What does this fold into?
Amino acid sequence: MELYSEIILDYFKNPVNKGIIAEPSGTCTEHNPLCGDKIRVDLVLDKKGKVSEAKFSGEGCAISQAATSMLTEKLIGKTPAQIKKIDNDEIYKMLNIPISPGRVKCALLGLVTAKKAAILCKKTK
It folds into this structure.
């Protein structure tokens, strides 16, 4: 299996939910100083406290960008508490490729950022 599977390359070249939300309920930016990857995640909560919109922006390798793009799809409909419970294994399963020790931070950067954004979320009125 190639390091960058076709699915990862497709998400890298054609990301979903890429952009910035003007007035998010919660937002966070994180970076990986070892490789230079930088991710921002914006979340909007609806009146029930569930994510109605999730977007990401930033720059980085195919793994960090694809993993975050895939993750934003999974965040829709979840509460901040549910987002905080997403574990690393869910990201690895989503990517469906072996992640070397040197690429773990790349794969998990979006998850770390999304969890911090979820902590900052406030419901819309």
Q: What stands out?
A: The two ends are 48 Å apart (CA to CA). Residues 104-119 form the longest helix (16 residues). The chain has one domain: 6-119. DSSP finds five helices and three strands in the chain.
